[in-house]
Design a protein that fits this description.
Distance between the termini: 25 Å
Number of strands: 6
Shape: globular
Largest sheet: 6 strands, mixed
Number of helices: 3
CATH class: Alpha Beta
CATH architecture: 3-Layer(aba) Sandwich
Order of helices and strands: EHEEHEHEE
Structural class: alpha/beta
Oligomer: single chain
Strand order of the largest sheet: 3-2-1-4-5-6
Radius of gyration: 15 Å
Strand content: 15-25%
CATH topology: Rossmann fold
Length: 135
Amino acid sequence: MKKKILILGSEGLIGSDLSIFLSDKYEVFKIDLRLKKSKNYFKINLNKSKEVKKIFNYFSKKKIYFHSIINSIYPKRKKFYKNFIDLDEKNFQKDLIFHITPFYSILLNSYNYYCNIKKKRTNYKSWINLRIKNS
């Protein structure tokens, strides 16, 4: 049985390539804002904690446990800065919040989800790396 991986932002530049790369070795589950019909794909706004809680309740009922959760979300705005020097502090903070808020929401909801499972752990990957092991 393949280990399961959850990719956040699965339809973006990074997430889509990552999904393809990992699909041979892992069973890949994908979450994104874009509407797409495919196996193990969920259209969810990760900035809304109710939607995140709902999807983790679904995973729990189906007994779907992830080896890793990978955050590949990046800001997509009308004005995308190709050079970071052109990015002002206000827009940098917006981009940071756009990346961190979903990750934080996933951490909160998945922590409760995994606390009920003995000897299970998951890896959280983002530009902030965490590993939580249940004791």
